[in-house]
């Protein structure tokens, strides 16, 4: 159960500012795709338009076509909440709900979408926490506040929360940028394991991370500040990091251009 | 190779890091000396009294502290000491009125805090009767403020949610503007508004053609006063909820209204409760609107929708102006009751808001 995502000429705006222009790419099911590129090049914007989180910002809108297994997610009769349940998202900063316990955080998505049965919730919580590699650390204190965990644990809690609703795609927006190397390793391990079941798209500034975890890599860039971000090159990670087609990709990867 | 010769430094005694300090008792000594000098000056010249001694002592203390500290420790430390002394005096000064109010209330109010006071009304209590109580007024305050809270909390919170979460453009600006204007409405104007609108125009239809005072009318007037406070404080609290929490919920496929209800409001709850309690406290202490539209009264009236009702604030006002020599004690006891009531409500509300939630 995983999903092909096709973007065709996706252009996203913040008010009148065009953040990305004509992004066209296809993400294969059960792969990890890394989006890399300099700050402000629109990686996160593109990521957020995939689960319609872009439009949460006032004045933001998306043009072009984004389909999941052929279904246009920006079609008029599409339910936004259903799209977001199918395409989960993990944010840069861990954002556990401060009023909820660890258990409540994990099952928040289920509970707020109407699942009431305690046994179902408990089972889902354990499954998600095990999948997020957090179960052993928190199983004795599920009733404690989620905000009391360490940063790395909080991020894994947020991943557990995301996969508890059983999405088909997991988007990760620089999930390790606020974490130490050990927590980063834990989350990268997690990505390897989640790959069997989910399609994963990750935005990262860490080139080694992109090389380590991803199957395919998309390099985004901007001409200069104020210009929209464009997709420069999209290929197998191996190819991008060893023998990129574009000069600009090579410059960025080797650190000659920031 | 030149070696700059530095004198050998004993371990733990680096002169570069060490500075001369005033002895710990010095500030205390300076304070005592300042009080003594001030007392001598005031009593010697015969001008002023105890208050002047204190003011003068504080001034002398600041000057003395600065002089002593800058002589021994240098200017930077002297300024630090002087400013912290100044700030401490300011906080004491700010707390003085509060302490004074509490002391006055307790010392005067305890006299009549007896069974009789809480269980009887002022019905048939003549000027020579030392008894009489505030039962009717306590009931009135509880009912009026309770109804006003029931009206304003849902409306106010809904209004704030609209402004923060949904509002775009003109209407929101208009609402915020009018809420700001409402904040400045004097309570007597709110009372007059309800008198003109509710008592004179609406109530005759509910009351066989005759206009009538009621506790409910007072609730309406209090609502006018409470609403802007609740809207503004709730608005501020909702804005403090990080956008990342909303996004986290949206990303789980949670609908917007449910995100607001289950994530945003609980996160902001302690702050919202504080705002509501401020509004309740303000409303409970209002006299003018109750006087205008509830009419007051000496007898117990449990029905807020019909006939005159009193309230604690109004009771205080009436007893304080009463000619009976027993009235002032009743006024003080009622004032103390009012403050205690608001305090208890506030503490209860804070505890309730913290229920199910974790220490912060």
Can you lay out the helices and strands and say which pair or pack?
The complex is a heterodimer of chains A (258) and B (360).
Chain A: E1 5-14, E2 17-27, E3 32-36, H1 43-50, E4 60-68, E5 71-72, H2 80-86, E6 87-90, H3 102-106, H4 108-111, H5 118-131, H6 135-138, H7 151-164, E7 169-173, H8 181-194, E8 199-203, H9 207-213, E9 216-221, E10 230-236, H10 237-242, H11 247-253
Helix pairs in contact in A: 5-7, 7-8
Chain B: H1 26-45, H2 50-72, H3 75-109, H4 115-119, H5 135-166, H6 170-183, H7 187-206, H8 215-240, H9 243-251, H10 256-284, H11 288-293, H12 312-320, H13 327-354
Structure description:
The complex is a heterodimer of chains A (258) and B (360). Chain A is α/β, with parallel strands linked by helices and 258 residues long. Chain A has a domain at 5-95 and 170-253: Rossmann fold (3-Layer(aba) Sandwich), CATH 3.40.50.300. In chain A, 35% of the residues lie in helices and 25% in strands. In chain A, helix 5 crosses helix 7 (151-164) and helix 7 packs parallel to helix 8 (181-194). The longest helix of chain A is centred in the middle third of the chain and has 14 residues, at 118-131. The mean pLDDT of chain A is 90. In chain B, helix 5 runs parallel beside helix 8 (215-240), helix 5 (135-166) runs antiparallel to helix 10 and helix 8 (215-240) crosses helix 10. The longest helix of chain B has 35 residues, at 75-109. Chain B folds into two domains: 26-103, no CATH class; 117-354, MetI-like (MetI-like fold). With 360 residues, chain B is mostly helical. The interface between A and B is medium-sized, with 32 and 23 residues.
Question: Which features characterize this protein?
Answer:
heterodimer; A: 258 residues; alpha/beta; Rossmann fold; 6-stranded mixed beta sheet; 4-stranded antiparallel beta sheet; 10 strands; B: 360 residues; mainly alpha; MetI-like fold; 2 domains; 13 helices; 71% helix; flat
Brief characterization of the structure:
By secondary structure, chain A is of the alpha/beta class. Chain A has eleven helices and ten strands.
């Amino acid at each position: 159960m995983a999903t092909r995502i096709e973007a065709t000429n996706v252009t996203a705006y913040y008010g009148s500012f065009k953040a990305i222009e004509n992004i066209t790419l296809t993400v294969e099911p059960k792969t990890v795709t890394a989006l890399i590129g300099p700050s402000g090049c629109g990686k996160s914007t593109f990521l957020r338009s995939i689960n319609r989180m872009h439009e949460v910002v006032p004045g933001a809108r998306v043009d072009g076509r984004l389909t999941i297994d052929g279904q246009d997610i920006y079609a008029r009769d599409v339910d936004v909440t259903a799209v977001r349940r199918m395409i989960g998202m993990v944010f840069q900063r861990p954002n556990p709900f401060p009023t909820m316990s660890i258990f409540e955080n994990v099952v928040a998505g289920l509970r707020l979408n109407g699942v009431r049965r305690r046994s179902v919730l408990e089972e889902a919580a354990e499954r998600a926490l095990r999948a997020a590699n957090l179960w052993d650390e928190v199983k004795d204190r599920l009733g404690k506040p989620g905000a009391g965990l360490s940063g790395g644990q909080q991020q894994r809690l947020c991943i557990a929360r995301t996969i508890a609703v059983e999405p088909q795609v997991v988007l990760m927006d620089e999930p390790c940028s606020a974490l130490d190397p050990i927590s980063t390793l834990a989350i990268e391990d997690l990505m390897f394991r989640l790959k069997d079941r989910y399609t994963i798209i990750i935005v990262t500034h860490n080139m080694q991370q992109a090389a380590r975890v991803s199957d395919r890599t998309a390099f985004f860039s901007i001409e200069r500040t104020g210009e929209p971000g464009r997709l420069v090159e999209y290929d197998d990670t191996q190819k991008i990091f060893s023998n990129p087609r574009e000069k600009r990709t090579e410059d960025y990867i080797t650190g000659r251009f920031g | 190779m030149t070696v700059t010769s530095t004198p050998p430094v004993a371990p733990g005694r680096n002169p570069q890091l060490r500075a001369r300090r005033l002895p710990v008792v010095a500030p205390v000594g300076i304070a005592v000396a300042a009080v003594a000098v001030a007392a001598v000056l005031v009593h010697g010249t015969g001008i002023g009294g105890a208050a002047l001694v204190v003011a003068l002592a504080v001034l002398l203390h600041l000057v003395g502290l600065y002089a002593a500290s800058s002589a021994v420790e240098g200017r930077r430390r002297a300024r630090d000491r002087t400013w912290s002394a100044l700030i401490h005096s300011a906080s004491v000064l700010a707390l003085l009125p509060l302490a004074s109010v509490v002391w006055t209330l307790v010392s005067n109010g305890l006299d009549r805090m007896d069974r009789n006071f809480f269980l009887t009304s002022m019905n048939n209590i003549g000027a020579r009767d030392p008894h009489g109580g505030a039962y009717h007024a306590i009931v009135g305050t509880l009912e009026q403020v309770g109804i006003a809270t029931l009206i304003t909390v849902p409306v106010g919170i809904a209004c704030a949610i609209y402004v923060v979460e949904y509002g775009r453009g003109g209407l929101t600006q208009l609402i915020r503007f009018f809420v700001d204007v409402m904040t400045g409405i004097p309570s007597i104007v709110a009372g007059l508004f309800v008198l003109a609108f509710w008592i004179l125009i609406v109530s005759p239809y509910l009351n066989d053609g005759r206009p009538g005072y009621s506790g409910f009318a007072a609730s309406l007037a209090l609502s006018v006063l409470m609403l802007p406070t609740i809207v503004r404080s709730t608005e501020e609290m909702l804005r403090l909820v990080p956008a990342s929490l909303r996004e986290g919920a949206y990303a789980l496929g949670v609908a917007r209204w449910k995100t607001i209800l289950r994530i945003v409001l609980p996160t902001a709850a302690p702050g919202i409760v504080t705002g509501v309690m401020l509004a309740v406290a303000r409303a409970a202490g209002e006299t003018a609107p109750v006087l205008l539209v509830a009419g007051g009264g000496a007898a117990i009236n449990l029905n807020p929708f019909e006939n005159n009702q009193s309230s604690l604030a109004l009771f205080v006002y009436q007893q304080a102006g009463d000619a009976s020599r027993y009235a002032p004690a009743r006024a003080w006891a009622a004032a103390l009751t009012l403050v205690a009531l608001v305090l208890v409500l506030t503490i209860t509300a804070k505890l309730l808001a913290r229920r199910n939630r974790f220490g912060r």
